[in-house]
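Q: Hi! First time doing this. I have a protein sequence and I read that you can turn it into a structure. Is that right? Here it is:
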Amino acid sequence: MMADTSTEQLYNNRLKGKVAIVTASTDGIGFATAKRFAQEGAKVVISSRHQKNVDRAISQLTKEGLGENVVGTVCHVAKADDRKRIFNEALKLGGPHILVSNAAVNPAMCHITECSESIWDKIFEVNVKASFLLAKEAHTYFQRNGGGRIIFMSSLAGYILSRLLGHYSVSKTALISLAKAIANDVASDNITVNCIAPGYIPTKFSNTAAKWEPLQRTVLTNIPLKRFGTTDDVAGVATFLASDDSSYITGETIVVGGGLASRL
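A: Yes, that's right. Below is the predicted 3D structure, encoded as structure tokens:
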């Protein structure tokens, strides 16, 4: 007899009854994470800076039978009013209980000593400051709800520096430290704070940020598992960190890098 591969059999409803916010979640890793959360029973607030992206993602998830589990809104994480909006959407659903801070920018590739002040400020405003402010806001709601999960999307670049991505790498290293700092401060509130550091995952963002084609020729041979990662690889780890299965893990970073060395 063939195995039953229906959605009910593939997923365990580990997030049933939870409400999750996933920023920058209409494409790539963010979309895969939001989709997996919905498949696991969560209500999910997805977001993008552009309404057309939100509409497209909601339409896709609806076609896949997940429409009742997702809502969407415009959110530029560097804007206070937009951050407030996504929390208000989560409140309408009875949450929030989970925050995945996934939004990131990398406006230029250059040597770090050539990085302009405006580029530096933009990277840290979106990649680090916004993550801090989202976590700070989430803390307030999680206290009321008896606990929660905060997940920062860092990067293997936070461990392995590239000469042309040094400014981006520093921002991602900062998230690893930020997770540890906040985790220590909120542990008594039954809140865990962890990071995920994806390695080489083909997405629109990574292709723009790191010129994917040359990487295919030069990096793959160094990955022990001999393949690039997928957005679903990252989403699976995010689901684990968002679930009760990870309740005794906090202040840590899980590298999803196919075995590449990753130490600060």
